[in-house]
Amino acid sequence: MQGTIMGVLLRFLALLAIASSAAALAASEAEKPGVAPAPARAEGEGPYPQLILRGVTVINGTGSPAFGPADIVIEGNRIVNVRSVGAPGSPIKPEDRPKLKAGGREMDLAGHYVMPGLIDLHGHIGGAEQGVPAEYVYKLWMGHGITSIRDPGCGNGIDWCVSEEHRSAKSEITAPRIFPYVFFGQGRDTPMTTPEQARQWVREMKAKGAVGMKCFGYRPDILEAAFDELKKQGMQSACHHAQLDVARVNVLTTARWGLTTMEHWYGLPEALFDDRTVQDYPA
User: Fold this and answer.
1) Are 153 and 30 in contact (CB under 8 A)?
2) CA-based angle 152:159:238, to the nearest 5?
3) What is the pLDDT of residue 31?
4) Would residue 198 count as lying in a domain?
5) CA distances from 126 to 16, 32, 42, 244 (A)
6) What is the mean pLDDT of the chain?
7) Residue 185 above 60 pLDDT?
8) What is the DSSP string of 185-231?
């Protein structure tokens, strides 16, 4: 009996500790210094009213074979035409190719391959603790074909992250597109204690420019209110179901609330149990 009571007490203390630490982390995210914003773009050309990539081989990402040669027409930051202009080994008829508009640019890329930009759904820009400049991180992503990233947590603060998002969208910096997912509770000096506080926080983050929320876990009624408000605001969500909090909220619970994505597969094994809440841990 004594061992059972001690086990219950230890589990209670563990849950209390994770709740306190999660709240402290949320508050500290807005306080700790972040990295410097990326410098203004000094390389590259354009944008142009029209850009045509001539003679490329296209890998479209659907699993179908590559095809080409093809001309890709880009206007207003959008691909407006991908036209097959021949077959390997056959001559290309100039009259069949898309016409270049005034002020546009064309690039002869025969022998080169083109594929859609990759999307990193869990890409931390990093902060001062990592000691890596944002410019380096951005260019590392771009150099590996990643053209869009979702920053889960906005470790440099929501204002910093949204500012970088806007600068990237205007091509003021060399960076992928950025989708800011703010950490649950970021910007608050005290933990949330009511569902209405969670709803108000979501609305405040939407006003600041966040497109989603990232969380580890929290008191279920408060977290459920946050997810409900996210849906009302047209926002999305990501959850890293922390091991010390997954006994209260696993991925099945958050999925029913409207979770967009689970992170690192945490919370899934616990959702598969039908005879226990969490796995057995050695004493």
Assistant:
1) no
2) 20
3) 47
4) yes
5) 28, 12, 22, 24
6) 90
7) yes
8) TTT-SS---SHHHHHHHHHHHHHHT--EEEES---HHHHHHHHHHHH
Q: Note the residue count of the chain.
A: 283
What DSSP designation does 117 have?
P
**SS3 call for 271:** helix
Please name which of 206, 216, 214, 223 lies closest in space to residue 155, comparing C-alpha atoms: 214
Q: Contact at 8 Å (CB) between 119 and 149?
A: yes
Segment 212-238, tens digit of pLDDT: 999 999 999 999 999 999 999 999 999
Q: Give the Cβ contact number of residue 208 at 10 Å.
A: 17
pTM of the model: 0.84
Final residue of a domain: which of 114, 138, 160?
114
Q: Reply yes or no on whether the pLDDT at 267 is more than 80.
A: yes
Residues 11 and 125 in one domain: yes
74: in domain: yes
Say how many domains are in the chain.
2
CATH number at residue 76: 2.30.40.10
